[in-house]
From TrEMBL:
<feature type="compositionally biased region" description="Acidic residues">
    <location>
        <begin position="749"/>
        <end position="760"/>
    </location>
</feature>
<feature type="compositionally biased region" description="Acidic residues">
    <location>
        <begin position="577"/>
        <end position="593"/>
    </location>
</feature>
<dbReference type="GO" id="GO:0003723">
    <property type="term" value="F:RNA binding"/>
</dbReference>
<feature type="compositionally biased region" description="Polar residues">
    <location>
        <begin position="553"/>
        <end position="568"/>
    </location>
</feature>
<dbReference type="GO" id="GO:0006614">
    <property type="term" value="P:SRP-dependent cotranslational protein targeting to membrane"/>
</dbReference>
<keyword id="KW-0143">Chaperone</keyword>
<dbReference type="InterPro" id="IPR001623">
    <property type="entry name" value="DnaJ_domain"/>
</dbReference>
<feature type="transmembrane region" description="Helical">
    <location>
        <begin position="14"/>
        <end position="34"/>
    </location>
</feature>
<protein>
    <recommendedName>
        <fullName>J domain-containing protein</fullName>
    </recommendedName>
</protein>
<feature type="compositionally biased region" description="Basic and acidic residues">
    <location>
        <begin position="594"/>
        <end position="605"/>
    </location>
</feature>
<dbReference type="GO" id="GO:0008320">
    <property type="term" value="F:protein transmembrane transporter activity"/>
</dbReference>
<dbReference type="InterPro" id="IPR014756">
    <property type="entry name" value="Ig_E-set"/>
</dbReference>
<dbReference type="InterPro" id="IPR004179">
    <property type="entry name" value="Sec63-dom"/>
</dbReference>
<keyword id="KW-0653">Protein transport</keyword>
<feature type="transmembrane region" description="Helical">
    <location>
        <begin position="73"/>
        <end position="91"/>
    </location>
</feature>
<feature type="transmembrane region" description="Helical">
    <location>
        <begin position="191"/>
        <end position="214"/>
    </location>
</feature>
<keyword id="KW-1133">Transmembrane helix</keyword>
Length: 760
């Protein structure tokens, strides 16, 4: 039996190919792209703020995509057309199968099995009179089928072949059909086929990939132009101690607002009249600055829009108001890029890449952080945080400050009883007062604490000179409603129980995840070889230069974040050694019988294997933390910000600094997924000499003003233990470069005792 390859002449196999290809695309496309109508929760509308700013913001968000309905209709029509085409192709394919499998000459002629030739002829003549194409009742397709059945039963060889092989022509060759129509390989169509191939794969595809690549390489990972990042590097390196208004000027000079770098920027002829009029209303704008690019028109216009936004000045809704919204949409990404740039400059200064005189101060990076909530809430830094509440104006603040009371922040206002807070807002209607209470109750109340330890040392609670200190920051997010003075004891107890239930569920999930972790069978060769060198286990015995290790710890800090879902151990400010003592005692009891039966060499081997296991587990945990960090969520809680044209989520910065020397010890970690509870690890290098040092652990909000917190971190640094010298096999020699680096890099840390002596 031979084989034969042929292109599809009738089109049946091509229909099979199109049918399978269409079904493969259409089914998942319908599931993912079919517009789903979201059911509105009636409770959500009751909890929403109905102030004028929030109502306008909802309209802006609804109209942000003017072609949304057209896109939805186009998607629906495309999916419906695809399913109609799929049903049609399915019908065509079913007809092909029926015609190919329904050829039975006896059934077509209407004669019984084994009928004679005369009976076959009579049946043929009877039906041919009716089905002949020349007759009025003729059917050409049925007549051809009838003729084929007649020939199959009147020819002896054809009849035998059909009865034996099911085919009048006998055994046929195995045929492989190529699911492409035959006209594709025809000679007269070759030019068109090659032209289409060249157009798709040699013109359209390279242009598409090149356009995408050109656009992507111009931006960083945070949707910021690389040219803008270079601009930030230049200005922050030029001005290490930068004031807040100077930061606003640098932000306004971002190239995202320049028409030449961003095609989304709209320049109108009316700007020549409206922008100068706006500048006259804004003092301290410094529009006469001659510094490039701060003096360019786009920078001056953007700066004027930012100042008008912070001063809450009304703008033309058809021109400058749209430009203000465009600037605010870009601002959070640009501020975060500023913080990142300043932090990189600090790390470069620690590494000796730039001059120490160009080291940005802690005030510079904090001014960048202050700018974020100012832009989100539309308030200057010196304004009262109470103005973040709806309907509240400067005129209402006079009731908050008098001889009886002095309320200056949101927490104090939330603690007032309902009658007293209502009396302060007696000019408000019931609806306006309800909006104030709803917004205030949803604002964050953060429980901020930390725990200090030296993770890789034998005694985790003792900090030695030059050791890597790990500060685990614990953040618990609650609502301001818990401070309300009108809450009953039952309501407070319910809130407390709900919080405890959430934490218990989180701990249960963490335990389940730990149980599901599969052990690693093999360890890398480099880890095994490293464990047999006989070096001491304590890392604090050999101090590294402070500046160099600070750079290394701060660089790796952002990658090695402790996820709360992967850690079931609670974090407390006070250290407790009982758990560590119990675990060590249990481990000693487990290996005690084994030590009785082993020699000294075997005991050393067992301890080295256990050390390898511990080191390898820590290595795997670091990898898991990095993988989880890359897929970190950016959804927490919505922020009440009527002046910001988009939905904003609560984000936070946490870091450690030294206020006395005005230096940054750890890179600011951006917390973007604080829903209920979050833990963050911050690492830095302890000072190189013993003493009591006071640092500051800071928490800053990028969405609300008046929510920042800071805690003092007192570090009692002990002297590092002396390196044993009775073991000559330990290689503890240091290179000349390391000695020189230790001499050149003097620590900027100062102890409390030294400061007091200097003051005397």
């Amino acid at each position: 039996m031979g084989q034969k390859f042929q292109y599809d002449e009738s089109g049946s196999t091509f229909f099979y190919f199109i049918l399978s290809f269409l079904a493969l695309i259409l089914i998942p496309a319908t599931f993912y792209f079919w517009p789903k109508k979201k059911s509105e929760d009636p409770r959500k509308s009751k909890e929403e703020c109905h102030c004028e700013g929030c109502c306008k913001k909802r309209v802006i968000i609804a109209n942000a995509d003017p072609y949304k309905n057209v896109k939805t209709l186009a998607v629906k029509c495309s999916i419906i057309f695809g399913w109609a085409l799929l049903i049609f192709l399915t019908y065509k394919v079913s007809q092909f199968d029926y015609e190919m499998s329904n050829f039975d000459p006896y059934e077509i002629l209407g004669v019984p099995l084994g009928a004679s030739k005369s009976e076959v002829k009579r049946a043929y003549h009877k039906q041919s009179i009716v089905l002949h194409p020349d007759k009025e009742t003729g059917d050409e397709k049925a007549f051809v089928k009838l003729t084929k059945a007649y020939k199959a039963l009147t020819d002896d060889d054809a009849r035998k072949n059909w009865e034996k092989y099911g085919n009048p022509d006998g055994p046929s060759a195995m045929s492989f059909g190529i699911a492409l129509p035959a006209w594709i390989v025809e000679k007269e169509n070759s030019v068109w086929v090659l032209g289409l191939y060249a157009l798709v794969f040699m013109v359209a595809l390279p242009i598409t990939v090149g356009t995408w690549w050109y656009r992507s390489i111009r931006f960083s990972g945070d949707k910021v132009l690389l040219d803008t990042t270079q601009l930030y590097f230049y200005f922050f390196h030029k001005t290490p101690n930068m004031a807040l208004k100077r930061v606003i000027m640098i932000l306004a000079a971002s190239l995202e607002f320049d028409k030449r770098h961003n095609s989304q920027v709209i320049e109108r002829p009316t700007d020549n009249e409206e922008v100068p009029s706006l500048i006259k209303l804004l003092p301290h704008l410094n529009e006469k600055c001659k510094e490039i690019p701060l003096c360019r028109l786009y920078s001056v216009k953007t700066r004027a829009l930012i100042h008008a936004h912070l001063s809450r000045l009304p703008l033309n809704p058809h021109t400058l108001e749209k430009d203000r919204q465009f600037v605010l949409r870009k601002a959070p990404y640009l501020v975060q890029e500023m913080v990142s740039v300043v932090n990189q400059l600090i790390m470069l200064a620690y590494a000796g890449r730039i001059s120490a005189s160009k080291l940005p101060s802690i005030e510079t990076i904090e001014n960048c952080m202050k700018l974020a909530p100012m832009l989100i809430q539309g308030l200057w830094e010196f304004k009262s945080p109470l103005l973040q509440l709806p309907h509240l104006t400067e005129d209402n603040l006079k009731y908050f400050v008098n001889k009886k009371r002095y309320i200056k922040n949101l927490q104090q206002f939330a603690k007032l009883p309902n009658e007293e807070s209502r009396s302060l807002l007696r000019d408000f209607s019931e609806q306006e007062y309800d909006d104030v209470i709803k917004v205030l109750g949803k604002m964050p109340l953060i429980d901020f604490s930390f725990k200090v330890e030296v993770v890789d040392d034998e005694n985790t609670n003792v900090v030695t000179a030059g050791a890597i200190v790990t500060v685990t920051v614990n953040l618990v997010r609650r609502s301001m409603r818990e401070l309300f003075g009108d809450l009953t004891a039952v309501e407070k107890q319910n809130i407390k129980e709900n919080t405890e239930e959430k934490q218990a569920d989180e701990n249960a999930d963490n335990n389940d995840q730990k149980e599901n972790v599969q052990p690693v069978a093999k360890k890398p060769v480099w880890l095994k070889s490293k464990s047999h060198k006989g070096k001491p286990k304590s890392k604090s015995s050999k101090s590294k230069p402070v500046i160099g290790v600070m750079k290394q710890a701060a660089t790796t800090n952002a990658k090695e974040t402790k996820d709360p879902q992967n850690n079931a151990k609670p974090i407390m400010k006070e250290s407790n050694d009982s758990d560590a003592d119990e675990s060590s005692a249990e481990s000693d009891n487990e290996i005690a019988p084994e030590e009785d039966r082993t020699t000294d060499d075997e005991r050393k081997n067992n301890s080295s294997v256990e050390d390898d296991d511990m080191e390898w587990e820590k290595f795997q945990q670091k990898i898991n933390k990095r993988e989880k960090l890359e897929g970190r969520s950016k959804t927490s809680h919505s922020v009440h910000c009527p002046s910001y044209p988009e939905d904003k989520q609560e984000y936070w910065w946490t870091y450690i600094c030294d206020r006395k020397s005005q230096t940054l010890l750890t890179a600011p970690f951006h917390v973007t997924n604080l829903v209920d509870h979050q833990e963050v690890q911050l690492k830095f290098t302890a000072p190189r000499w013993p003493g009591v040092f006071t640092f500051t652990v800071c928490l800053r909000s990028d969405s609300y003003m008046g929510m920042d917190q800071q805690l003092d971190l007192k570090l009692d640094v002990k002297e590092a233990p002396a390196v044993p010298t009775e073991h000559p096999q330990w290689d503890i020699s240091e290179s000349e470069e390391e000695h020189q680096e230790e001499k050149n890099n003097e620590s900027e840390f100062t102890t409390d005792s030294e400061m007091s002596d200097a003051e005397k």
